[in-house]
Specification:
The chain has 748 residues and is α+β, with helices and mostly antiparallel strands. Helices cover 65% and strands 6% of the residues. Helix 19 packs across helix 20, helix 24 crosses helix 25 and helix 26 crosses helix 28. The longest helix is centred in the first third of the chain and has 33 residues. Its EC number is 2.4.99.18. Belongs to the STT3 family.
Length: 748
Amino acid sequence: MAASETSKETILRYAFGNVLSFFILVLIGVLAFSIRLFSVIKYESVIHEFDPYFNYRVTQYLTKNGIYDFWNWFDDRTWYPLGRVIGGTVYPGLTLTAGTIWWLLSSLNIPLSVETVCVFTAPIFSAFASWATYLLTKEVKGAGAGLMAAALLAMVPSYISRSVAGSYDNEAVAIFALIFTFYLYIKTLNTGSLFYATLNAIAYFYMVCSWGGYTFIINLIPMHVLLCIVTVMTSEHFASFLVFIIIHVVALVYYIKGILSPKMFKVAVTFVVSIGVVVCGAVLAVLIALVASSPTKGWSGRSLSLLDPTYASKYIPIIASVSEHQPPTWPSYFMDINVLAFLVPAGIIACFSPLSDASSFVILYIVTSVYFSGVMVRLMLVLAPAACIMSGIALSAAFDVFTRSIKFQLPGATENSERDAGETSSNSVVAQNDVAKTEKNEDAVKERPSKKNRKKEKEKENVEKPSVKSQIKKKLLILPLEASIIAIFLLVLLGAFYVVHCVWAAAEAYSAPSIVLTSHSQDGLHVFDDFREAYAWLSHNTEVDDKVASWWDYGYQTTAMANRTVIVDNNTWNNTHIATVGTAMSSPEKAAWEIFNSLDVKYVLVVFGGLVGYPSDDINKFLWMVRIGGGVFPHIKEPDYLRDGQYRIDSQATPTMLNCLMYKLSYYRFVETDGKAFDRVRRTEIGKKYFKLTHFEEVFTTHHWMVRIYKLKPPKNRIRGRAKKSKSKASSTTGTKRIGTKKKNPWH
């Protein structure tokens, strides 16, 4: 009777725990979604950054023309005059996912635009990623650790930085695919189910379609399989495996020998051995030739950058020029994972007690992700789930110890435990008596137990021993009451600090879209909408077939927002083409005009932050243009732009720097009424103030001078300008046209 009541109580407690866990997971999903909406609440529903604009443009094409046309789409508005085959050069997972969501909503008569779906895709999948983290951690250390890890991932700043509303990049769905693939792998490992193995393969396929980071999975899982094999293969097991293989080889040889004559058997052996040696030698020779002929020895540039952090800066400046490919600083870890950095070691220790295949996998995951995050700041995103899993395991184990210690030492807890122990012992006595009666009845039939029964009893004793040890171990992990209460209070305080930091990061650090900038001053909030202003001008004041040259950072936005053909964009697949643009920006005005004219360029766009203090402008990126251009065209040399090894734009700058196109397009007419021209980013007076443009003319400058657009002068106009000095003077006045109005000096 007591046993049935206990079983009912256990079932009810289990059911209540499942329901409670479900509601907690729903709240975690809501939290993961809502904390990423600050960008929409504070600004507006817009696409962020640079790459997401290309993904948005591709999704628009997919929803309008269908998947077949999307797969065969040749985009002639990018990489002019080369163009780009979109279907074969993108990871379609994100695009197909958002397109499917839009199609489902449309079929349900929910009229949402493609842009709205793209804006909210990342927050939706962040909730999915939190739930996948729960499932993965639950397979490793139980439901408590899973709930804790899911809550941590929902708020971790590193993941928020890539999944706020409007961040429509591949990582929006790829992190969910990464975690879910790992969960299905562990589930397959724990259950041996073919069903989960099939789901694991499908999830991995989705991951491959979504992000280039799939190489992390394709290497991590085999590494863990090898680790499992090594840990299983003790000396006894190794011998059995080796004999197993030898037996099959011998059986195959004897089978072939039995069906062939002795002479034919010798011929067959000679033939098989000869063919095997030739094939192995040929394959080895081909591999050696391919690796030797490749300048990167068969590795991609980004892979070599992960293995050798200095490789990109030495040999591939186009990779090194990307800010997210730089190594992170120590403050970056505190900013992106905060207190989790201190909880990860405790989680690793908890995974060793006891060590299983699942816990060894997450240990391998955290070790590899810590290394790769130290090489490239972008891969902090891969570290975030691993850090949340380890921290969730650590916090769950800590709370388990502290709450058990408090419960054990509360008044009345000892009596309850003794009563429970008494009930357990009495139940065990009754059970033992029943077993004894059964044994007596069996002894009446058979006096001696068989060897098989003895073996079973011995195995039963061996099984019961670890449970006794674990009970003793749990009793030993009882801390003083005061220490447990203080420890729980400190953990809650640590969690509160983490929540406050995550909310601040989501609201302030990572919610601002790069296309709309803001700044706070004594006058209040200032909004800088210069990028959209410039793209709108290009869209309304240039011909549809006009080509626009700029540095590659702005290519995707120019194509998506202005609908104009660009020379290079953020895909950066053709280093020579980018080097050509970098060379033009680094050359004198006449040489730059000849390069752009050969590419059929009509307009040149530059980003300048010297007036408002915007640091991510083209002058700060200029040395990368020099390095990339010099890597292909040797006449461009970086020392020519440096004075005693220093990059300067003041009066001490080199003549090469002061006469290059980038300097002139950035600082043209940048002079105050009193003759001063102070650059607020470089915090210095510029070196060359009064100069005229002979091959380019300013056609538009945005309100805060952040984006400046110039038009290439036709050849005959420049010749006529030299012949008629009076007309040249009239045409080079400070007033330039800006949508029908006269452009004022910025300092007035």
